[in-house]
């Protein structure tokens, strides 16, 4: 399935083209119409997400919990490391090795307060 664009042709992989064709047939509508709807929906959702992310980033900067000088794109490796940490945490909870969240954060805040006091001495 190729779709004409203003600048040329948009080529889809055979597997993706087959998925689109099958979905369009199932819905009883032209594949081009389905594809346009999906792309439009995806673009709108992406724009909303980017706008929301920008607002959250600005809020974090204003709260002093984000340093824009250290912005880096999220890599696949970083995402994988975060997922692995989440999996480890879930496994730990399933094994009954959980920690009281309030107590944990109280300890973290106390340590941060100590560090700040040391920095001002």
How far is it from the N-terminal to the C-terminal residue, by CA?
A: 70 Å
- Strands of the largest sheet, in order across it? 1-2
Radius of gyration: 24 Å
Structural class: mainly alpha
Number of domains: 1
Give your account of this protein's structure:
It is a single chain. The longest helix has 33 residues, at 31-63. By secondary structure, the chain is mainly alpha-helical. 71% of the residues lie in helices and 5% in strands. The protein has a two-stranded antiparallel sheet. The protein starts with a strand and ends with a helix. The mean pLDDT is 83. A hairpin with a 4-residue loop joins strand 1 (2-4) and strand 2 (9-11). It has four helices and two strands, in the order ββαααα.
């Amino acid at each position: 399935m190729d779709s004409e664009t203003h600048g040329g042709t948009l080529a889809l992989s055979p597997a993706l083209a087959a998925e689109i064709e099958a979905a369009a047939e199932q819905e009883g509508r032209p594949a081009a119409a389905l594809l346009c709807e999906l792309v439009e929906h995806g673009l709108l959702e992406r724009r909303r997400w980017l706008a929301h992310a920008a607002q959250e980033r600005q809020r974090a900067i204003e709260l002093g919990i984000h340093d824009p000088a250290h912005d880096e794109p999220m890599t696949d490796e970083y995402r994988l490391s975060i997922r692995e940490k989440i999996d480890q945490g879930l496994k730990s909870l399933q094994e009954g090795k959980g920690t009281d969240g309030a107590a944990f954060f109280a300890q973290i805040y106390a340590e941060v307060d100590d560090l700040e006091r040391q920095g001002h001495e």
